[in-house]
């Protein structure tokens, strides 16, 4: 590394300016990024072998935890690891913002489809799902669009596909029922014409996906998501994990924390 007259770090080979190394910091907003933030390995926070086994055995399952426990961080790390593994094409989509109304299928599901199509395009270059959806996929009833989208992706991808769907329980009423029903409707066609695995992530456990129509309880996803063992709970951060995080700062900066503060954190 050379330093030029403006104190700009430059590459010794070609003299082009290079970015100074970022000092990592404690993240308090949104998912953590390993290059920017102190981070616990997200895949160590859940039983990664079990998750991989569920995916390898074509299971659809729920990952749930309360707010701010690292769900999104963990799902993004899962996508990275699965894509790096080379066996699957994996996309992560957050549908938190994809609702126009509280339960109007005709408005909510097209928004979900667009978000998911864009996320697939981002994760799997060349998929061109958004283009397909806007020109063809959106022409059928909203009651079938999501299933068609996943089917189209699966059929046109060289690898079995895995979808990690975040913020699922922000959908309510008929919109959530329709999303789960569309998944269930093609479940038997996996992995050649529907995803190998789908992970539904939100704050609620699967048993809470029971909804009521009048007096009738409707388990919209029951035959697909009713296996208790496949409803995983991401644990809260432990005292040990929090201390390990502080230790990363000590190692990076030399600043030592008084042990007396840890119980208060
Ligand atoms: N692996 C990790 N290592 C260290 N801190 C983490 C990790 N994962 C999450 N956090 C902390 O938790 C916060 C929330 O992370 P994230 O957004 O992934 O959680 P979430 O459960 O998806 O939250 P929300 O319920 O708001 O969607 C981060 O801003 C960070 O402070
Ligand atoms: Mg989140």
Automatic annotation (TrEMBL):
The keyword Nucleotide-binding applies. InterPro entries: AAA_22 (IPR049945), P-loop_NTPase (IPR027417). Transmembrane segments: none annotated. GO terms for molecular function: ATP binding. Residues 57-208 form the ORC1/DEAH AAA+ ATPase domain. Keywords: ATP-binding, Nucleotide-binding. It comes from the Bacteria. This is ATP-binding protein. It comes from Comamonas nitrativorans.
């Amino acid at each position: 590394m050379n330093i030029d007259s403006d104190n700009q770090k430059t590459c010794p080979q070609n003299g082009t300016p290079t970015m100074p190394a970022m000092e990592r910091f404690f993240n308090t907003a949104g998912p953590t990024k390993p290059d920017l933030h102190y981070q616990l390995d997200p895949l160590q926070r859940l039983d990664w072998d079990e998750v991989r086994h569920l995916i390898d055995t074509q299971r659809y399952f729920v990952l749930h935890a309360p707010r701010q426990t690292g769900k999104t961080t963990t799902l993004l790390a899962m996508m990275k690891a699965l894509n790096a593994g080379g066996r699957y094409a994996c996309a992560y989509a957050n549908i938190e913002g994809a609702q126009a109304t509280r339960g109007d299928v005709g408005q909510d599901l097209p928004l979900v489809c667009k978000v998911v199509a864009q996320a697939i395009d981002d994760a799997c270059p060349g998929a061109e799902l958004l283009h397909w959806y806007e020109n063809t996929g959106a022409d059928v009833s909203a009651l079938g669009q999501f299933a068609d989208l996943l089917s189209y992706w699966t059929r046109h991808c060289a690898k079995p596909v895995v979808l990690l769907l975040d913020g699922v329980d922000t959908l309510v009423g008929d919109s959530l029922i329709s999303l789960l029903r569309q998944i269930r409707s093609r479940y038997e066609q996996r992995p050649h014409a529907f995803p190998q695995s789908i992970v539904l992530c939100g704050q609620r456990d699967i048993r809470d996906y029971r909804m009521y129509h009048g007096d009738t309880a409707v388990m919209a996803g029951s035959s697909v998501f009713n296996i208790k063992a496949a409803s995983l709970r991401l644990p809260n951060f432990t005292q040990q994990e929090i201390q390990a995080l502080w230790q990363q700062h000590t190692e990076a900066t030399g600043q030592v924390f008084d042990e007396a503060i840890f119980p208060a954190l």
